[in-house]
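Support reply, case 0932

Customer input (verbatim):
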Amino acid sequence: MDRQIFSSRLDRLLQLMEQQRLDAYLVSVPENRFYLSGYEAEDHHIMESSGHLYITPDRRLILTDSRYEEEARREAPDFELIVYSQGLAQVLPGIFSDRAPERFGVEGHYLTYRTYREIEEVLRASKPKSAMVSVNGLAEKLRLVKEPSEIELIRASLALTEKVLLSTWERLAPGRTEKEVAWEIERGIREGGGQAVSFPPIVAGGPNAALPHAVPTDRTLKSGEPVVLDLGSKLSLYCSDMTRTWISGRPEAKIREIYRVVREAQIAGQEAVRAGVDSVAVDAAARGVIERAGYGDRFGHGLGHGVGLAVHEGPGLRRQNATIIEENMVVTVEPGIYLPGSGGVRLENMVRVTRNGCEVLNSVDLFYAW
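Our regenerated output:
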């Protein structure tokens, strides 16, 4: 990727830092680290960091340990590299000795309480009157609107997901277990060149389809029942996310009804997406279809979310916390109806916001029309 992209992103981050009156900012979220520097290492879990960026108007540092030294040096050559052996707190006194920030911003939504306190103690020891400020969403705000190169990477990731779904769809049949199908999806994404699945695949049949985030089980698929298939791939660090509901044979009338309502709600949501509209209005357009059909209390989650370096990122399309939708945001539109004990239906597309509407990025339909 052109290094100029990272320089431009850093310039925009510095503008946001100035608005927040921050002298320095510590970037710890893996997707934000990559977005601003090109350093790709991921955290295995929140207790084991692969490093941090320390950014001021005149310094750009990567702070990491010896496991990632060569990777950081190669992937982020514009950053000064500082390697620690005993954790972040080991090197901060030396960094602060040059010029400790008076207002030091951190991503408090990601740091553990222990790490937060360690940083705070070092900062106070270096400059007693300094303030550590949890400033969440600074880099995430930059990531909301996708650059052209990002959109192409998202398209490629979605194309891989659709290829795997088509292959899996052809082999779906009563008698197969949810776990079998989920593994087929995951294996297909890996063998197709994906770095990983963007989240563990959901394969949920019959009553399990009433669980929006069901975990695949040994239950077998049965004729006439809905099977929710929710899957996504991670390719070149960018994610995709799509859902279809498969049914073998002719389902009962209630399932046909909720499928029709969900599909109408999805279309209404897509038609509401356009630059300048707020996210709550988009959610309401789809939710209204479901409510008027009498299933409003069976659609509990938001209509959609942003997708990019993370499979779930801003903006959220939901009933509160309105965000003005901007051109080249990429979001999902995924209404669902869930009937406990019976089953459920969810349908999900990814769309790119345009000036006058949206571009549906999916090329695979697999929708029923009874």
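We compared this against your earlier run and they match. Two observations from our side: The chain has two domains: 3-143, 148-360. Residues 3-143 form a domain with the Creatine Amidinohydrolase; Chain A, domain 1 fold (CATH 3.40.350.10). Please reopen the case if you see a mismatch on your end.
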